[in-house]
Structures are given as structure tokens and as C-alpha cells.
Amino acid sequence: MASPAHDPGPALDKDGVRLTVDDAIATVTLANPAKRNAQSPALWRALTEAGRLLPGSVRVVVLRAEGKSFSAGLDRQAFTPEGFDGEPSFIDLARGDDAELDATITEYQEAFTWWRRSDILSIAAVQGHAIGAGFQLALACDLRVVADDVQFAMRETSLGLVPDLTGTHPLVSLVGYARALEICATGRFVMAEEAVNTGLANLAVPADQLDGAVHDLASAVLAAPRDAIIETKALLQGALSRDYEAQRAAERAAQGRRLRDLAGLGE
């Protein structure tokens, strides 16, 4: 009888974040459903660490969450005078100089930036509430598959703040300036149908089909050669910053690299 395959367990499991790797697919799970996966600086550092721990075999990263809510946003403890243990409170941050404040927010943002690396394709599986920092974390990924009960909202302005966790650029890119401003200024909920119709989500499915739909999408991505996906992702990421002629030139250069590689003539 063949012995069962060894399960190495999670590569990371701390501060409400769990990372598991299965060959070409890595799964990052928000694992604090009792608090609706509310976010904190410790969670952000764990997310940053998860990105650094990805082995080179990983091609697709799935971001998912346990419980009924993807993420209810920033943990409200951040708004108390004492803040989080061992962390600067919002009052402490406000009292610091501009350089200190900028450095702190830059560290927080690192949890949201690595999802768009050119060597991986990231998919967020989003159910229930995705509010504020939760919305921005979903926006950090390349693609979003949502459950039909999803409720996106950008609530920072209602708290006297601005979205500062990298969500504004992808939001404007996906839905346009006017709708992005309206979503942020009002803090209203964006439901599944609108999310799909405006491009915020690639697909909406019943909640009990969410994991299956994400698995099917990941499998479809893995069916294509890795280098072709990497080149295509880079090509599309740069499209908004190039004019038409520059994008044509970028297409030619990328295709030249692919043809040389396929012919065994690459460097």
C-alpha cells in the first residue's frame, strides 16, 4: 500500500493570516472570522510576509477569507486612544513628523502591493462585507470573483480619512473617475450585480459555488504557458500609461521575445 502524501502544513499561520502552497497555487486565507477578518498592522505585516514566502513554483495566488465576511475593514481598536498593543495609535501617528507618517503608511501599503507582481496572477474570492481596507485588499488583486452576497464599500471618508492602502488607482482604472469618486464620497455599498457590470468583479456566483469558481479560473490560467501569462500581464499593466503607438511597440517587443523563446533563440 502506498503511503499517504506528506502534508507540510501551512507555510505561514499568524496574526489572522494563513498561507498554504500546493505546487503552482498558493492560497492566502484571512483566518479571523470571529472578528469578520478585521485588519490591523500585525495582519498587514503577515500579509507582506506571505508574499515574501512564495516559492518560485507559484503561478496563481488565491486570496480568500473564512466566515461570512471577507473583511469588515480596519479593526475599530485603531480608533481608540490606546490603539493596538505595541503599535502607534492614530493619535501617535498624527503627532509624528511627515517623514515618520509617510514611512509608517508605506509599511502598511506593502501588504497590498505584491499581489500585482508580474510573476504571479492573483485572484480574490470575496463574500459578504468587503469594507474599507477589505475593499482595498480585494482591489489589490488582479482578478475578483465574488459571491452573490458581496457588499463592497469604501468608508474612509465617513471617518474623516482617505483610502490610503493602494485602492484608489485600481478603483479608478476599473470603474472610471466619476463612479470611483461617488463610491468613495458616499461610502455606499456596491453589490454583486453592479460589481460585475462596472468591472469591479470578473464573475459573481452563489456563495456555495465561490471556491469552485475560483478553482476553475485558476486552472484555466495554469493551462497557458507561464511566460506567455507573465508577458501578457506586463503588457496590459502598462497599457494605461502608454499611448496607442507606444502600446503597439510594446506588443511587438513582447511578441518578439515570445517567438525567440519558442524557437529556442532566447537569451
3D architecture notes:
By secondary structure, the protein is an alpha/beta fold. Helix content is 42%, strand content 16%. The protein has 10 helices and 10 strands. The protein has helices at 41-53, 90-95, 98-113, 133-140, 168-175, 177-186, 192-198, 210-222, 226-237, 244-262; strands at residues 12-14, 17-22, 25-30, 60-65, 121-126, 129-131, 143-147, 151-153, 190-191, 203-205. A 7-stranded mixed beta sheet has the order 1-2-3-4-5-7-10, sandwiched between helices. Mean pLDDT is 93; it is low at 1-5.
Pick out its properties.
267 residues; 10 helices; 16% strand; 3-stranded mixed sheet; alpha/beta; disordered N terminus
Give the structure's gist in a few sentences.
Helices cover 42% and strands 16% of the residues. The chain is an alpha/beta fold.
How much strand? 15-25%
Q: How would a crystallographer describe the biggest sheet?
A: 7 strands, mixed
Structural class per helix/strand content? alpha/beta
**N-end to C-end Cα span:** 46 Å
What is the element string, with H for helices and E for strands? EEEHEHHEEHEEHHEHEHHH
Give the fraction of residues assigned to helices: 40-55%
- C-alpha Rg (nearest Å): 20 Å
Strands side by side in the biggest sheet: 1-2-3-4-5-7-10
**Averaged pLDDT:** 93
Number of helices: 10
Unreliable parts: 1-5
Shape: globular
* Total number of strands: 10
